[in-house]
Design brief:
heterodimer, A: about 90 residues, alpha/beta, 3-stranded parallel sheet, 3 helices, 3 strands, B: about 240 residues, 2 domains, 5-stranded mixed sheet, two-stranded antiparallel sheet, 7 strands, globular
Chain lengths: ~90, ~240
């Protein structure tokens, strides 16, 4: 919810935003309608990835950047086409 | 030797399944990774736990936890479905503000802004005036956090991750403690800047504890922080909730 308020405030002030949301909370941006939201296939508390998963971190951020540049209207929600994966062992 | 006699529990000592589920939500077994157990009706909670035990069979025999992880993920998603939401949700909007990117990201100044509760070592925001608050202490004050004003921590974008501290009573911070980039991806953003994906990172990243007064965030702090970023000529913001 907090990031939903922030996204709306920043966008109203003229700053473009893209927010991430982990799948368990996808209903929050659906209701709050921030401008651009990338929904990630991760569990709560691990919005971007499991610890140490650099490849997934890069994948998520690049997908977020793509959304930032491609969206043409508000309330653009995009779900990543990926599955949850644990990070490397150790 | 005779077995010691086990005294039967009294009615007052017996824990119901509902109480057991709730114990993970700021109770006797607090574990924020599974705080959502208390949202599940008893029959669904039982179904989840039975599934965990059933899927441990594979993990025990060959170390394969894939199906177990899928099960936990699916139930984490299921637990937060709105029809199970007994915490009132007030924030419904019909409109959506939109500012198109004025230029490509590769020419833009990007700032990182998270609700993950990160700050730089030595720059503790000292919530409620308390010095060196531990995560355990924060958990005990979750309701105070929810009613209070957010405190924004400024984190120079070149801060080594070893110098970051995370404290937040609203989510399981263990992954963030092992790797800040799980919710505060500053290392990845620095790499993208070097690679030219981002024009430049703003001089500072920002983080606050998202468990805070939503009214004050919406009406006061959101607009104030927006002006702060405009004054810094920030073109775009990556927002990461937890």
């Amino acid at each position: 919810m907090s990031v939903g308020h922030i996204a709306r405030a920043f966008e109203e002030a003229g700053i473009s935003t893209v927010a991430l949301t982990a799948m368990p909370f996808h209903h929050v941006p659906e209701r709050m309608k921030p401008p651009r939201v990338l929904i990630t296939p991760h569990i709560s508390g691990r919005t971007i990835s499991a610890p140490g998963d650099v490849a997934r971190q890069r994948e998520v951020l690049l997908a977020a950047f793509k959304l930032l540049e491609e969206a043409t209207e508000g309330a653009t929600l995009r779900t990543m086409d990926a599955k949850y994966q644990p990070g490397p062992a150790g | 030797m005779a077995e010691p006699e086990v005294q039967p529990k009294t009615q007052a000592e017996l824990e119901t399944f509902r109480e057991f589920k709730a114990s993970f939500y700021y109770g006797s077994r607090t574990d924020l990774l599974f705080k959502w157990l208390e949202r599940l009706p008893d029959d669904q909670g039982a179904e989840f736990l039975a599934g965990v035990l059933r899927l441990l069979d594979g993990a025990i025999d060959n170390g394969d936890v894939g199906l177990l992880l899928e099960h936990i993920y699916e139930w984490n998603v299921r637990a937060y479905r709105p029809h199970l939401d007994h915490h009132e949700f007030h924030w419904f909007y019909d409109d959506s503000p939109f500012t198109p990117m004025a230029k490509p990201l590769a020419e833009s100044r990007l700032a990182l802004f998270t609700s993950s509760g990160h700050f730089v070592e030595g720059d503790d925001p000292e919530p409620f005036g308390i010095k060196n608050m531990t995560q355990e202490e924060a958990l005990g004050r979750i309701k105070d956090f929810g009613k209070g004003e957010p405190q924004l921590s400024t984190i120079p974008s070149d801060t080594p991750v070893e110098k970051l501290v995370v404290r937040h009573a609203g989510y399981d911070i263990r992954a963030a403690q092992k790797d800040a980039n799980t919710v505060f991806p500053i290392e990845r953003l620095r790499e993208f800047q070097q690679e030219g994906v981002i024009g430049e990172l703003a001089p500072n990243a920002y983080s606050f504890v998202g468990a805070t007064s939503q009214i004050r965030l919406k009406k006061k702090f959101g607009p104030e922080w927006a002006q702060m970023l405009k004054d810094q000529a920030v073109d775009a913001v990556l927002l990461v909730p937890v």
